[in-house]
Specification:
single chain, alpha/beta, Rossmann fold, 2 domains, 7-stranded parallel beta sheet, 6-stranded antiparallel beta sheet, 14 helices
Length: 472
């Protein structure tokens, strides 16, 4: 089949694309930024990439000869206050673009919406579902709750909490019930529903075999990890305080923390149906899903992470707009060293950040991360998806990867930390010389004062870093 996929660089779509390619489907992948095409599918002859922004669809052209489409656009971590309007606008524009095509089926991944009091995000998902309904194609909706898998927001947040806090004083929403579902099962539902006419114009809840509270999920997660954890829930923690608690304890942004707290107040219990039998799936239990996720992590085989979504940080533009570093009106710290072993230095550059640290004065980097978190930034806790692999769009601590090419021996990062200006960090090997360049474009007087305040630390931090990159 010839299939249109939206949200190609997102957590779900990126994994689903690989599964559909294994089934020899031809994919038309929609991306907002052609510089962010996932490496694992970029050169696949069954993939075609088209530039589409569903908030600005005027110039978009969807091929007429598509058989089906997946709508996988969500705004869970957006910082926008009007995300509901933006989600509806995206859905309406998608519908207008797809209706004139030969598309027979649209598959949408939504959220379970059975509670009488829905969160803002779940209400938005239901509105999107209603918007996507059409007389021109059949809509199949799969409604899921908590998705468990390496790199998923819920998994990484629970991992942060469990691995860092032996004793927890937590909000009362930890007693809310839910039915977690493994990412592997989600993908099997999405792929298995393709082309099945008995699923046309129907919606199904998809969920795991257990009803668990969030507290039980934390404790079972700890069991899988071989950790003993103690949890006390208190009714006095308000939604706002709960959001701050989640934000400071985990790697999430405050916007996502607030959205999750809002959603976690709602019970997410699925309605039974015959969908498991139709697709031929027996969803795995929670502990098995967690164990499989850690197998992927240990194999360094995490394909996608919620942290790599542009909306997980402050960066909102297309990457291509920032690849050319400005030359004027900037402060610069430029250093270079002779490279004795090019392969070693490239591997060190590609391993920078995350668990490996920044090779020099890591304590100062951590302090900067704490300061960033204190002022509402992303901090260092996002880490990186892979310890050895980088591509454009990846989150890297409080940086965003703009460009990464080992062939060209160049890595370019853009700062997502809280700054009175914009900052770039570049590593490039040219003719046996490693060029390390930090560039800061200040915004107003505060930007200039900031640069001069941190300038004394540059001699230690940046000099130590370039030395570590070239010396074995």
């Amino acid at each position: 089949m010839r299939i249109l996929i939206t949200g190609t660089t997102g957590y779900i779509a990126r994994r689903l694309a690989l599964q559909l390619l294994e089934d020899k489907h031809e994919l038309i992948c929609c991306v907002r930024d052609l510089s962010r095409i996932p490496d694992e599918i970029e050169d696949n002859p069954l993939c075609t990439f088209i530039k589409v922004d569903f908030l600005k669809p005027e110039s978009a052209e969807i091929p007429k000869d598509i058989d089906a489409a997946y709508y996988l656009i969500h705004s869970m971590s957006t910082s926008s206050d009007d995300f509901e309007d933006l989600e509806l606008q995206c859905a309406e524009n998608f519908k207008k673009l797809v209706e004139p095509t030969h598309c027979k089926q649209v598959i949408y991944l939504s959220g379970i919406v059975n509670d009488d009091s829905l969160s803002k995000h779940l209400k938005s998902r239901l509105q999107v579902e209603n918007t996507l309904k059409s007389d021109s194609y059949a809509l199949t909706t799969f409604r899921a709750g908590i998705i468990v898998g390496s790199g998923s927001a819920s998994f990484e947040i629970i991992r942060d909490i469990v691995e860092k806090l032996p004793f927890m004083i937590t909000p009362k929403w930890l007693n809310t019930k839910t039915q977690p579902l493994a990412i592997r099962d989600v993908l099997n539902f999405l792929a298995g529903g393709l082309g099945k006419e008995e699923l046309y114009n129907k919606a199904y809840d998809i969920f795991g075999p257990e009803v668990l509270t969030y507290k039980e999920m934390l404790l079972q997660f700890a069991e899988v990890r071989g950790l003993k954890r103690y949890i006390v829930t208190l009714p006095v923690l308000t939604p706002k305080l709960s959001s701050y608690w989640l934000y400071f304890v985990t790697s999430t942004s405050f916007q996502l923390a607030a959205a999750l707290v809002d959603s976690m107040k709602v019970e997410v219990i699925g309605k039974p149906s015959n969908i498991n039998k139709i697709i031929g799936i027996e969803p795995m239990d929670y502990k098995t899903a967690v164990d499989l996720a850690f197998q992927r992590i240990e194999q360094n085989a995490v394909i996608s992470s919620w942290k790599d979504a542009v909306s997980s940080g402050r960066f909102k533009d297309q990457l291509s707009k920032h690849i050319e570093i400005p030359q004027y009106g900037c402060f610069k710290d430029e250093r270079q060293k002779t490279v004795t072993d090019e392969a070693y230095t490239l591997d060190k550059i590609w391993g920078i950040g995350g668990r490996n640290g920044w090779y020099s004065f890591n304590g100062l980097w951590k302090i900067r991360g704490y300061m960033d978190k204190l002022f509402g930034g992303v901090g260092l806790r996002r880490g990186r998806t892979s310890d050895t692999y980088l591509e454009a769009g990846d989150a890297l601590d409080f940086w965003r990867v703009l460009y990464a090419s080992k062939e060209e021996k160049r890595l370019l990062l853009f700062a997502e930390m809280r700054l009175p200006g914009e900052a770039w960090l570049e590593f490039k090997i040219v003719k046996g010389q490693l060029h390390q360049r930090a560039v800061f474009r200040p915004k107003g007087i505060w930007g200039r004062l900031y640069w001069y305040a941190v300038l004394p630390f540059h001699a230690f931090v940046f000099n130590g870093m370039i030395n570590a990159l070239v010396k074995k």
